[in-house]
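Entry:
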Amino acid sequence: MKISPVLNFLKKAIIAMIVLGVFLAGYSYLQSTKKEVVASPPEEQIWTVQAVRAEIRDISPTEQAFGTVSSGRGAQLRFGVTGEVVSVSARLRNGIDVKQGEVLARLDSERSALALEEVKVQMAAEQRQISQLETQLEVRSRMFERARTLFKKSVGSQAEIDAAELAVSVAANLLDQAKSRLAQYRVAARRHEKDIEDAVLVAPFDGTLSNVDLALGNQVNNSHLVAHLTDLSRLEVSFVVPVGIYQNIDALIGRPVQLRWTSGNTASAELEAVISRSEIIVDRSEGGGRLYAELPEKAARSLPPGAFVEVQYVGQSYRQVVSVPEEALFGRSTIYVIENGRASARAISVLHRSLGSVLIQGDIQDGEEILATRLPGIGDGTRVRVANSANAS
């Protein structure tokens, strides 16, 4: 017997209703028997930080600059005349220390010597001529006076007086010409003597030779650079300081500076120099003023000319300041001190910056711990834990 479609539908609907009822009954039971979870507030984050302890004191920070060692006195050695090199000292070599007046080389000066001898002969002849002319002038002057005396006695004539006066004038003129020629000979003699002197190359002062360029037989002129002479007892280094320090130049003169000649990260030589003077004309492109520090007399073998050195010096003194690491500065004028485990903002002024540290003044008490770690989003009340504590340096 076939079941009608209506009865079949009703049968399936009843079964679905029973299943849905069982599901709803189970869900109601589970909801009524579940445990209630109480929400807890989120735990506050604690940041682990580094800190330094504030120490208010007077500080004179060490500044850094760079400069090149040079000599305060040097000379380019050249011959004063043209000629052939006939003698070269064995000590005319690079790196040799020479003394003032030491002969280094000579040129052939025979022609100048012969010319000088010729001029001396002419001078001797002219001096004899002058002696004779002086005698003639004296005789003719006496003759002129005698002619005048006779004329007054009506013995001589006017023609005799005129002739005697003319003879005196001629003798005086010849004497003046002879003296002029003698003066010219003396000038010529001095010129030849100077040529002979300039044919000898001597050291003008104690120093060390470099850039030597000369050999026996060379033909040279007065533009040929034979060598460079450097006075190693007058070494100095120049360096630029900021405007604020340069304005205190009177207090800087006489102060010591430390020089370091480095190779990579290793100091090859260290030496102390003394600030001796300053450049009065300032180059605006340098951004400050230039100072000069003199090295000790025998410093050349430690710091030779041309060495590029680091200069460390004390520029200014600051009273009642605190030195903190760069990491302690937030923005331009804020630091954070640690109070009861929390960060507290303080307003400060930056007085000086150097590599890795700054000098500050402001709302800081001696002994307070200053936060020295960069934290994202830090603000008043941020909870922190100090990993270490050290005195500010």
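Helices lie at 5-33, 110-152, 158-198, 243-246, 249-252.
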